[in-house]
Design brief:
2 domains, binds zinc ion
Amino acid sequence: MDDEKRKSPQKEANRLSTMLRLVLGEERFPVDVEALAREVSRNNEDPIGRIMGGDLPGFEGMLRPHKKRPGWHIVYNDDPRYRGRVRFTIAHEFGHYQLHRPPLCAGDYVSGALQRDCGFECKPLRSNAWRDAERQREEEADTFASFLLMPLDDYRHQVDGQEMTADLLGHITDRYGVSLTAACRKWIDFTEKRAAMIVARDGFALWGRASKSAFESGIFVRSGMPLPDEAFAGLGSNGAGFTSDTPVTRPEGIWSFRCGSEPVRELAMVSEFLDISITILQFDTGAVSVDIEEEEPWDAFDQFNSGGQFRPGGDRR
Ligand SMILES: [Zn+2]
């Protein structure tokens, strides 16, 4: 598909989201993405048929062409570690269907079976493991899933400028049926506050992301960055996995970035099951912008990890 014909993932997700709102109103959350994928695709010559869990070592999901007649299957990894990510994975594969698939027709099956190889096999995203075209497709499918499951206007309305707390995050993950990581990542992407998230394992950042305003003030999370010894992510957690229900004020000197150190409000969640921690840092507003010379642009992929198992957007899932 050439660039001129490329569908915008965000526009396509918003189009479907508007349709859902018209039909279901406030009852549309969490989005029943399986029903939506079937309903939207059923008037095509190559609809989505089965959507099922499967044993997919190393893969999160696949969009597979039917071997005998025009149509597609979605398979998602049903390993328990991926459970919180299933809705996002199905939405991601549905994104490939809407945005990237070659439409299949009877002519593709004249010999009795499909001769072309046109499926999508989706791994946890690693920047160094994808060719550029693949990476763009994978990012587009993630963007589609994110906007379909968590429409921006609705998410903004839920948060309404509040500080991020364990309760508010719980509300968001319940409403949209997504993982904590997906919910945090989305918030970081749109909040006007100075905030950052860091997903870590064994005391080192797998990947992280700063909000636009935080980035512009010199906050940049590098993969591989060690967490400070005093970080809450190293502590035990309550039943919901959080080290505290509300962000705790930490003095200057604990969290340091290129721009130096400043007091910060820290909220941390530890998942022993997934063997990761997620830390959200919320900074005071009003810091002066700094010149960022050699860093990546804010929306560059490399602000994320290159080696962690958990893709941005993510475990998300
Ligand atoms: Zn994919």
